[in-house]
Design a protein that fits this description.
The protein is mainly beta and 293 residues long. The protein has a single domain, classed as Jelly Rolls, CATH 2.60.120.200. Helix content is 11%, strand content 40%. Strands 1, 3, 4, 5, 6, 8, 13, 14, 15 and 17 form a ten-stranded mixed sheet that branches. Strands 2-7-16-9-10-11-12 form a seven-stranded antiparallel sheet, with no helix packed on it. The longest helix is centred in the first third of the chain and has 27 residues. It is globular and about 75 Å long. The termini are far apart.
Amino acid sequence: MRIKMTKMHIKIGALSILSILLFSCSSSDDPETEQVNPPDPDPEPVKEWSLVWEDNFDTDLSAWNAWDSGAFNEEVQLYTPSQLVLENGVLSVNVERKEVTGATIPGSMDQKMFPYTSGRIETKTTYGPSSAAGEQEYRFMARIQLPAGAGMWPAFWSFGDPWPTKGEIDILEARGNEPNQFQSNVFYGTTAGTATSFNNEEIYTNLEDLTADFHTYELIWAKDKLTILLDDVVKATYTTIRNHNISDLFDNKHKITLNVAVGGIFFPPGDRDITAYADTAVMKVDWVKVYKR
């Protein structure tokens, strides 16, 4: 009986102490002085990309202008629409060693003989970010299999008229005899028809064979930055800090261009012997897409 009473006293004592502690803790919490930090504001949602235009090359080239003349840069091809072929949802830009006669440059009455024929197209519509329209970024994308062979100069790029006062962005340039690399570049100038004096060239080496399969080449164009990507991987970033002309490109909408040139100043002097160039080559384009946000 005594042992039980002792246990009861201990239990009551313990409960009393616990009650005092709880009451003490409760009475010390003053709701008027409690500091409550407001919740962090929700971050600004990232705007989703919206599709502006695409060409899957299923029907025709009505969205494009095709060249029918020679070009510049000491290139040796005559661009003709017949070298642009649509088949099974793919555009093939075919290059052939074939003597043809045509205009030396667009709009010229002068004619000359060319040892090669190839193809070049430019979008009829121009694209690019516009502050007036609230467009902060544009995205140009193309899925391309590059041509193989010495002398081939494939390109996916954009420019505004008159060149180079509206800028030029080379998303992709490559040499057919260097299948494991490509490069990008940015040009801008203040005088129409006058090349710029600076070079923003970036070369990406040690890649897989870009002529063996399709790859996605991409430009993200913002007011103060241009980003070049290959298969969703960032390869280079051009900024206003490093390249002062980037902000000058903003609000200048561009034509998107696809072509394969042959020879020219893109090749080192030792690689300009056209007798060593490939007889045929083809650049395949699966699609071109333009987004904005």
